[in-house]
Amino acid sequence: MYGKGLRPLSIATVSMVAISLSLVFFYAPLDADQGFVQKIFYLHVPLAIVALVGFVVGGVFAVLHLRSNDRRWDAYSYVSIHISVIFGVAVLITGAIWAKASWGHWWVWDEPTLVSFLIVFLLYATYYPFRYAIEDRDRQARYASVFAVTAGAFVPLNFMAVRMAESLVHPRTFATANGGLPGEMMFTFLCSLAAMALLWTTLVKFELTAKSASGQVKRLRRALDAPVSGGSSRIAPEVS
Amino acid sequence: MELLFAAPALPLDEAGKYVAGAYVVFVVLLVVYVAIMAAKLQRIERELGEVAEIAERNKESKAAPGREAEEAAPRV
Q: How far is CA B12 from CA A34, A199, B15, in A?
């Protein structure tokens, strides 16, 4: 069920990533201010946007789980957050590389954009031990959903607070005046954003398919009265 | 193809290693994720094989009493 449409989605993702990389290195003009280092922007910013949206999506799935008590939505929420955390790791590393190249420092503690993303990332990093600490699967799913809703609501609030704050060094790329992206850069950026969104969707679907297969093997074992082998995760929700 | 021909050459100055580093980190993260998923899929495949074996053994043990009775019956 979860694997349906995974192949065309994967092909679309690979094609879109290839197209966006071609555009980044062969089409988008060099930034007058930052030069070649600005190419990191086409990777770092779409990754950050998709990761943050993924956290919110995880919260929406959690709301659906709390409303319906359907474990499927808990699995969707868990996987959305899981993939977004992986994207978050990439955002922090690529951001640090960009900071080093642009500002000469790997990390700037008095910059609200960086610190706020780190706070969001660390908040979601606690999601795993939080789930793991609860033995009962129903309670685990319910508490994890409450966490996902609360943290998901915090993400846009945090984003708005940072936008309203006075930035010290971090560029405001989508400023409406004096500093907006020129056409070619915007087109390349939108293609990169689409590529990252497709990649996120493919990885979520891939993870759900693997979890579904694992869950069905366990069901089969139970049906055959065979012992369930080790290696099953207490954190990850079971999907069937 | 026109797009590629019109593309400017990549400048190999100081910034190049940072840009390469950022993209390599992204690719490495993806490869690590795919490797972890491959290991998970291998485990599922192994478990599926074990379940198939158990199912076959169960089928054989269910079929066995009937076969024994058939063999014990006098042939005419």
A: 15, 29, 7
A106 contacts on B by Cβ (under 8 Å) = none
For CA atoms A46, A20, A90, A237, the dihedral sign is positive
Burial of A19 (0-12, 13-18, 19+ CB in 10 A): middle
* Per-residue tokens: B47: 């478990």
Question: Least CA distance to A221: which residue of chain B?
Answer: B51
Q: For tokens 């031990």, name the residue.
A: A129
Cβ–Cβ < 8 Å for A190, A49 = no
For residue range B6-33, list pLDDT tens digits in order: 444 445 567 888 999 999 999 999 999 9
A115-166 pLDDT, tens per residue? 999 999 999 999 999 998 988 888 999 999 999 999 999 999 888 888 777 6
Per the structure block, which two tokens stand in for A110? 């008095």
pLDDT number for residue B72: 55
Q: Which residues in chain B have Cβ-Cβ distances shorter than 8 Å to A93?
A: 22, 25, 29
Phi-psi region of B8 (alpha: psi -120 to 50; beta: other; left: phi over 0): beta
Q: What is the ipTM of this complex?
A: 0.83
Q: Does B24 touch chain A (CB under 8 A)?
A: no
Q: What is the C-alpha end-to-end distance of chain B, expressed in Å?
A: 83
Each residue's pLDDT tens digit, B38-49: 999 899 999 888
* pLDDT given for residue A38 in this prediction: 87
Nearest CA distance, B32 vs chain A (angstrom) = 11
Per-domain boundaries in chain B: 33-64
CB atoms B15 and A36 under 8 Å: yes
The DSSP code for A217 is: H
